[in-house]
Amino acid sequence: MKHHYLLPDISKPGRVGCTLPSLDVPEGSRPPEELLRQELELPEVSEVDLIRYFTALSKLNYGVDSGFYPLGSCTMKYNPKWHEDVAKLSGFAALHPWQPEEQVQGALRLMHELQEYLTEVTGMNATSLVPVAGAHGELAGLFMVKAYHQDRGHKGRTKILLTDSSHGTNPASVAMCGMETGVVASDDKGDLDLKSLDSMMNDEVAALTLTMPSTLGLFDPKIAEIARLVHERGGLLGGDGANLNALMGQAKLGELGFDYVQLNLHKTFSTPHGGGGPGSGPVCAMENLVEFLPTPLVAEEKGSYRFVAPTKSIGRIASFYGNFGVMVKAFAYARSLGPEELKRISEDAVLNANYLKEKLKPYYHLPYDRTCMHEVVFSGKKQKAKGVGTVDIAKRLLDYGLHPPTVYFPLIVSEALMTEPTETESKETLDEYIAAMKEIAGDAAENPDILHSAPHNTPVRRLDEAGAFRQLDVRWEMNGKKK
Ligand SMILES: Cc1ncc(COP(=O)(O)O)c(C=O)c1O
Questions:
Q1: Residue 434 falls in which region: left (phi positive, over 0), alpha (psi -120 to 50) or beta
Q2: What pLDDT does residue 30 have?
């Protein structure tokens, strides 16, 4: 059956969508004639046309509730629906941020317990829940680094080192914080190159920020050595902990030598990622940075809860207390699972990624052939040699009804296919993806045109993706005329 995605396609002169009863009250006066638009051409459709139109539109959206979504670095896992119900309970959702503390003790207790919980999971000493995104948590961490060095009179420490595989928000956060970036190379195993770090780690460096596990999906086994080197030279070790889905219950970032870390509750803790918000990027700190955390934190004394400001806090970085609804979902997730189940999540996330890795490595180049963590990064290099780009592979996956992995990132892998299956996918779903990717590899060798012209089964074909994002224009048009 043909679906229409533009109302003008189905408009027929004189067709109406509803019948109003005849007027049984005096006719009111119309606005002045000059305010009335004569030329307004609205589509004329029946009610059922309109319902089918909107229903067809609603089905165009692809999400984790529709199918597999292995978008690397985004942890697009299935989140239990009842967590949304909990967050919507009026006792949480109808609170007003100006309510006095004594009226919102339950909410404060939830925030306090979540702080404690994240502190425990990361092996740190305190947590501020205020940042409202991962990048915002990164920025908060960098402000803390700046404040820490200023407090000690280290005025010359203005540089933040990052790795060449780091997430794009990492250098952006450094720029937002008004500091300089230095890029440390990765070695041939995909880990941080210690020699490169050694040569760069001088008294201008305020901190090294590392993503753990990295955006290559790898756990750097030299982490203790890295931490020692950074600390010996007077720097701090910051963590981008957005990939915590791989580590929960397995390793604590504080014990690995990190001084602070930001988490992405909207990746790991039951809030969908990728919808543009709301998010939550708590920042957790070791003892040396606790007093610099963004305000407020929630403190408990004899069973009563109140907001407090750390003594040297970097201050307020968001309105009120952060995204409370996201905190409620994270709390529900953590409490309903408990420590053992949480540990199993990261085990399964890692197992699923390694399953994909082993099954697909005969078909796609694997730049770092070693056990991966929650995601595996392939390269489409073999296919590229036959004239098929990674973008063609991604577009062809759409024909199978599957969301593609992240492509062309991390930047240090040419033709990258960054695949994060997450723990919520079954073996059957993974096998379906593997079968599709195998067929695509076969077509790249034998029948490349089918890839060059993909997608074939989607309502629209290839779009100017950057243009669609930057100049989004969803206005209705009749006969090509903008209204
Ligand atoms: C490793 C990593 N760091 C940072 C971020 C930034 O998080 P946000 O998009 O919430 O700003 C992400 C987002 O996916 C990420 O994967």
A1: alpha
A2: 87
Q: Which helix (H) or strand (E) is 482 found in, with range? A: strand 481-482
Q: Which amino acid is at 287?
A: E
Ligand 1: which atom is nearest the Cα of residue 137?
11
- pLDDT given for residue 328 in this prediction: 97
Q: How far is the CA of 267 from the centre of ligand 1 (A)?
A: 8
Statement: 82-337 belongs to CATH 3.40.640.10: yes
Q: How far is CA 179 from each of CA 156, 236, 245, 285, 289, rounded to the nearest angstrom?
A: 11, 14, 29, 20, 18
Which residue out of 74, 136, 163, 169 has the highest number of ligand 1 atoms within 8 Å of its CB and is therefore the one to mutate?
169
381-392, pLDDT tens digit by residue? 999 999 999 999
DSSP assignment of 121-190: HHT-SEEE----SHHHHHHHHHHHHHHHHHHTT-TT--EEEEETT--THHHHHHHHTT-EEEEEPB-TTS
Q: How far is the CA of 60 from the centre of ligand 1 (A)?
A: 26
Residue pair 296/326 in contact (Cβ under 8 Å)? The answer is no
478 Cα distance to chain centroid: 37
3-state secondary structure of 68: coil
Name the residue ranges covered by the structural domains of the chain.
82-337
Q: In angstroms, what is the span from residue 315 Cα to ligand 1's centroid?
A: 23
